[in-house]
Amino acid sequence: MTNILLPHVFFWATTFIIAVMTAMIIWPRRRFTGGWYLFLFAVCLAEWTLAGTIEAISSSQQTRILLAQIEYVGFNLLVPFAYLFVKRYLSSEQLSYRQIFPVFVLPLITIGLAWTNSFHHLLWSSFEPGNQALNILIFNHGPWFFINGIYIYFLVAISYGLLIKAYLSSQKIFRQQIAAMLWGFAFPLVSGSLVFWNIVPVTGMDVSAMGFAFAGLIIAFAIFRLKFLDLLPIARQMLIDNMRDGVIVVDAERRLVDINPSARKFMLLNPREVIGKPAMNYLPSTLSGLFDVDPDTPVSYEMLAKDQKTYLSIYPIQLNSKRLMPSGTLIVLQDITRRKTAEIKLQESNIQLQKEIQQIEVLQESLRALAIRDPLTNLYNRRYLEETLEREISRAQRTGTFVSVMMIDFDNFKEVNDQYSHLIGDQALQAFAEILKKTSRREDVACRYGGDEFLLILPDLAAEDALKRAETWRKSASDLFFDTPRGRANVTVSIGLASFPQDGTTAEELIIAADQAMYSAKEQGKNLVKQTNSQGRLEGFRNIRLSESYTPHRD
Questions:
Q1: In whole angstroms, how far apart are CA 98 and each of 234, 366, 532?
Q2: What pLDDT, on a 0 to 100 scale, did the predictor assign at position 44?
Q3: CA 348, 352, 354 angle in degrees (round to 5)?
Q4: Which of 231, 417, 542, 551 could form a disulfide with 425 if both were Cys (CB 3.0 to 4.6 A apart)?
């Protein structure tokens, strides 16, 4: 056993300790993006440097060759794991077995050649003692050593290329992480190159472990100081920067961590000015509730973006995890301008449609009014009368109440038209219709029955009360005067009254009875109100029906 205080033994042991500490630091974060690959990188480094430490203090050549073969397991696997870590760290997707397996083909062949070197000497052509004071054993390189070395440099070169590309397209906080990786991998690259080209202080001394010691220290610094593995630039150029939707990443302290180009455009944000600053300093106050939502309760906001052009649907995705997993909020700003524009147009169309429906309803009401009202007097017409009278009689039969019917006819109306003109006649009809409308009850139905005839349906009104109402209307008509070029015109009316049930039990019977009573008033001098004589009605016209072409008598 050689003195364990030899300089290169110290470096081997120090690197082993750093590798173990690095693996312990990474272990809780192994489930982060690329975390497993970085952990296995640290494990391989620990295995290599542990075997290297033991090999450096061993004096037996056979033992040292065996330990060198063990070293080659960790040494040849750590660079592929480092490469896979870089690739996964910068990728948005898991690596497939087809991507992983080819990386290990040549390293596994190299490990196999190391363990069978005594048969072919492709990896180490020979061994010879070196500096005895430092316990050096020189491993003379065979052709496969250089092939393996070129492959390792190839993986390192690709890793550097990916990191440099990511560095140029990332935000400041991510650039610091990537820069740490570039510096961390630079030290093993330099120390490995010195060994590969045999540029070492003492022939046969392996100083490559020194570079990995510095790499471990830088990784530890990046994890604690730069939140390495906590904030990840997950293929931003591919995944986030090219998204049409806006993406804003906020950490657990509600600081802005990342903003993609779409979010910058929507919210008018300059990443150089806002990254690392409190998010609510730059987001609308209405979005403050995004950070206090229940993960099981979907929450979304709709608003007009700051560019005053884009409608956004904004919803948070909580990034809360267990234990040491990262936490924060991913805010997605979805462009819903097309949908919102369509909704606004649809609302406008609905409003217009409602207006058109209202217009149609008004028109229908007007048409309905035209269908049931007389255009000159605006009283109900004969069609509406027939429907209403049958209904009121049926109701009176059910409730045991009365229905009275009045037939009103202007006296000498033809002479009024001939002497004063039809215009005066129309004015007389309109004036009397207004009297009926103003003095009728809500339940009364006033109709224009014919040319100068009116018929009123008076529900729940007995004959005695109906007679008083008829007399009032007769007097109101006689008080109507119209000034004309030919002098003052005056009109009078004759009114016939019939009541259900004593004067008739059907609409036809009541109308005929009222008409006969009105005819009787005209025969007795006009400008009178006459009530149907039930006995006379029974004797004279009980069996008369409108269907029998009853023709009213007029004067």
A1: 21, 79, 110
A2: 93
A3: 115
A4: 417
The three-class DSSP label of residue 549 is coil
Summarised one tens digit per residue, pLDDT across range 255-270 is 888 888 888 888 888 8
Question: What does the alpha-carbon distance between residue 250 and residue 233 come to, in Å, rounded to a whole number?
Answer: 13
Can you give the three-state secondary structure of 170-186, one letter per residue? CCHHHHHHHHHHHHHHH
HEC string of 349-363? HHHHHHHHHHHHHHH
- CA 325 to CA 103: how far, in whole Å? 29
* DSSP-assigned letter for residue 541: T
* DSSP-derived 3-state class of residue 93: coil
Token pair, residue 117, equals 């070197």
| pTM of the full structure | 0.47
Here the tokens at position 77 are 């696997």
Q: What is the pLDDT of residues 467-498, one digit of tens each?
A: 999 999 999 999 988 888 888 888 999 999 99
Burial class (CB within 10 angstroms; exposed 0-12, middle 13-18, buried 19+) of 147: middle
Amino acid 505 reads T
Instruction: Give me 409's structure tokens.
Output: 């006819």
pLDDT at 550: 45
239-270 burial code (b ≥16 CB/10 A, e <16): ebeebebbbbbbbeebbbbbbbebbebbbebe
Query: For residue 126, how many other CB atoms are within 10 A of its CB?
Result: 10
Place of tokens 């496969």: 144
The token pair that represents 441 in the structure block: 């009850």
Residue 226: DSSP 8-state: S
Q: How far apart are CA 406 and CA 454, in angstroms?
A: 8
Q: Which two tokens stand for residue 137?
A: 């054993």
In contact, 329 and 316? CB cutoff 8 Å: yes
| Whether the bond into 261 is cis, omega within 30 of 0 | no
- Token pair, residue 152, equals 């390792």
Structure tokens at 544: 């008369």
Provide the pLDDT for residue 553: 47
Residues β-bridged to residue 456: 406, 446
